[in-house]
Structure formats: C-alpha cells, structure tokens
Write a structure and sequence with these properties.
With about 200 residues, the protein is α/β, with parallel strands linked by helices. It has one domain (about 1-195): P-loop containing nucleotide triphosphate hydrolases (Rossmann fold, 3-Layer(aba) Sandwich), CATH 3.40.50.300. Helix content is about 35%, strand content about 25%. It has helices at about 25-35, 85-90, 110-125, 150-155, 175-195; strands spanning about 1-5, 10-15, 45, 50-60, 70-75, 95-105, 135-140, 165. Strands 1, 2, 3, 4, 5, 6, 7 and 8 form an eight-stranded mixed sheet that branches. Strand 1 and strand 2 (about 10-15) form a beta hairpin. The protein is globular.
Length: about 200
C-alpha cells in the first residue's frame, strides 16, 4: 500500500503470479482492454529475453473511497521462468494481494507446484506469509482437452481456504471474477489496517 496524502490517493498493488505461460499476461491484457481508457493508464511491458513483466494502473470509481482516499489499483505480472526468480521477488515486493494463475494442463502440474512453493518462499522472506496476504487462485486454461479436475489442482497445490476461480483467460472467461475477488479482499484488508 502506498499513500499519497497530498493527492488523497491510495495505491494498491496486485501481482499475478504463476508458472511461465500459465496466462498471467493474458489476464492483464484482457483486463486492460475492457477497462474504460479514461480510468486506466497505458499497459507497460518490460521485456526480457524469454518473458515479460506487464503492469498498468486503473481507477475504479465504484469502489468508493477508503478513509477519504480514492483507490488506484496497480496490476503486475511476473516472469514465470525459473531464471527470473530475482525479478519475481522484486515485483512481488510491496504487493497488497496476489493472484496465483495455475495452468490446468496435466503436463503442467509440477510447474504449478514449483511456482506455488516459490511464491510462498518469496512471501515468507518478505515477512508476508501466504496466510497474511490476500490471495486468490485462478485455474486457467479450463478449455484444454487435458485439463485436470479442479479438485486435483486444489490438492496438488495444497491451496487451502483461498477463493478459487476457473478461467479461460484467452477469451476473458473468469478473468473479472478473479479480479473482483482479489480487489475486494485487498480493500477489506486495507480498511482493517487503516482503522
């Protein structure tokens, strides 16, 4: 959470985390193209050799004010490849909430688990353990022929009690349900902290 008292603006950072090619970027692109351009910034892409980090800000006026401040939501993705571990930790730093995007393909179960554990370790190192930060899990690519059952994905990750959503981010299915859930959880947490 970043507060600009002069502008009476509250910046909230939400990070989309998950294995490479799980659909993090597709989620962000779908959200960006569907939000009124007058309420959002441009999509910024920091390209690496194999992947990229995307981010943009948006204002949701229907959220109302929190302690008299207008919330501005910042959405980020992290590069999923193993050798970008330091970059992922850097992007994750200061996150107010996380969306974990799991790939539903049977061939990606181990990649999902490695990324989930990596995220948990990174959050622990930042004194932000998984149970203390708003977290939503999205099971993306539900349209794949080899998509694993939600129950199997849930069990393989050991997700616990976090909100879970099915998605086909490529066509926008489940993208905004996931976003709405994490934004609501983050705002609830911030309101508790500011009172």
């Amino acid at each position: 959470m970043n507060i600009n008292w002069q502008l009476r603006q509250l910046r909230l950072k939400i990070v989309y985390y998950g294995p490479a090619m799980s659909g993090k970027t597709t989620n962000i692109e779908q959200i960006h193209k569907r939000i009124d351009p007058s309420n959002r910034s441009n999509l910024v892409s920091l390209k690496t050799n194999e992947d990229r980090t995307l981010f943009f800000d948006f204002m949701q006026f229907e959220l109302g004010k929190i302690c008299g401040m207008a919330p501005c939501i910042q959405l980020y993705t992290v590069p999923g490849q193993e050798y970008y571990k330091a970059s992922r930790k850097l992007v994750l730093r200061g996150a107010d909430g996380v969306v974990f995007v799991a790939d539903s393909s049977a061939a990606r179960i181990n990649d999902n688990l490695e990324s989930w554990l990596d995220m948990g370790n990174a959050l622990n190192e930042m004194n932000h353990p998984i149970g203390k930060i708003p977290l939503v899990v999205q099971y993306n690519k539900r349209d794949l022929a080899d998509a694993v059952s939600i129950q199997s994905l849930h069990q393989s990750l050991g997700v616990g009690k976090y909100p879970e959503f099915e998605a086909v981010a490529f066509n926008g299915e489940g993208v905004f349900n996931t976003l709405k859930s994490i934004v609501n959880d983050v705002i609830f947490q911030v309101q508790k902290e500011l009172q």
